[in-house]
Amino acid sequence: MKITILTATYNRENELHNLYNSLNENYKVFKDFEWIIIDDGSSDNTKEVVKSWIKKEKYKIDYHYQDNQGKMAAINNGMKYVTGDVIIEMDSDDYFTPNALKMINSDYEKLDSNAYGIIYKIKINDKSKNVEDLDGKKLKLFEIHNKYGYDFDMRLTFKTSIRKKYKYELEHNEKFITEARTYYKMDFDNDGLLFLNKDIACSNYLEDGYTKNLKKVFKNNPYGYYEYFKECLTYIKKDNCTFNRRLYFIRQYILFSYLTKKTKKEAIKNVKGLNKLLIIILIIPGYIKSKEWNK
Question: Is residue 82 part of a domain?
Answer without folding.
Answer: yes
